[in-house]
Protein: Histone deacetylase 8
Organism: Aedes albopictus
Amino acid sequence: MLKLSAIGNRSAVVDELVKSYELLQFCKIISPKRCTLEDLLSFHSADYVECLKRYNDEDDIEEVTDELQEFGLAYDCPMIEKVYDFATSIVGTTLAAVDAILAGAAIAINWHGGWHHAQRDKAAGFCYVNDIVIGIHRLRTRFQKVLYLDLDVHHGDGVEDAFSFSKYVMTVSFHQHEPGHFPGTGAVSSIGIGPGKGYTVNAPYSRDIIGDMFVPYFQNISSAVYNAFRPDVCIVQCGADVIVGDHLGGTNLIPEDCLKCVQQVLSWNTPTIFLGGGGYNVINTAKYWTQLTALILQKTISRDIPDNAFFPDFGPDFTLDIYRRNVKDGNTKDNLFRNEAFIEGNIHTLKGRMILFGYG
């Protein structure tokens, strides 16, 4: 199994917990194939992809060369063994979800996808490939308007940058935004460029946000976006680093908060793909994505962790519970309201333009 050190055995733990709750019997399981070279080139540059291919079977991957630094393959994205195989496997899982939607499925889930930081010619933020962008390109062969929602604690910069000029893909990112927090982009004032102006939405927040602040913030903004844009299909990136206790996060949110947000998306009854993303507290990530799986499948599950191969890791309480920290929320209602008002004002302007030009 191909692994990335930043997430360790996360995929195995997530899959095992979902399986232990017997949720797979309510799903159609698809065995993904690795994507093709052409799939990668639908977004990534030929030079970057060629670099990944060339290093795939390289034994000496410790030396950081100028070329590797140019392509972002150092520091937070060090060269890894079988890097091309890893990239094509990741993209293959998301394209399998996309193909399911194209074949008529109402919902597809891929907790192994959601690598939103990778740029066209550069790896970034543990992301060696941008499966989301490639997946959206394929969705656009059938659907005119795609709505991308990003719940990861980090700004979805790679996806936003890819579609910042597009009026057919609306990107909406909810993320922590403050000095020193990666990637440092995603200010509320960033709204797209040229023909895509207004089709980029950034909803930043400060550290230690709690559910009572975050949930209405998400619901109000996402509703305004949905009602104006009326997408044909949605992709939701559900990065688990948004959950309290993630060492690369910073919120005070628990799964129940984010479940309320996803429930709203489900209420739209629009074809939707749910992807993973960040999540560096492996146990909390497994708990969160398992609860999301149950919600999406409309199944109620026990709070007690069933017996599974990683059962000892879920101690000491062996439940799905994740607890908030006793800290002060760094956000105020006034600050979030100002962001919300700016976004809704921009959406109102955008809606007027859509009507004026007969698009909507």
The chain is about 40% helix and 10% strand. The longest strand covers residues 169-176.
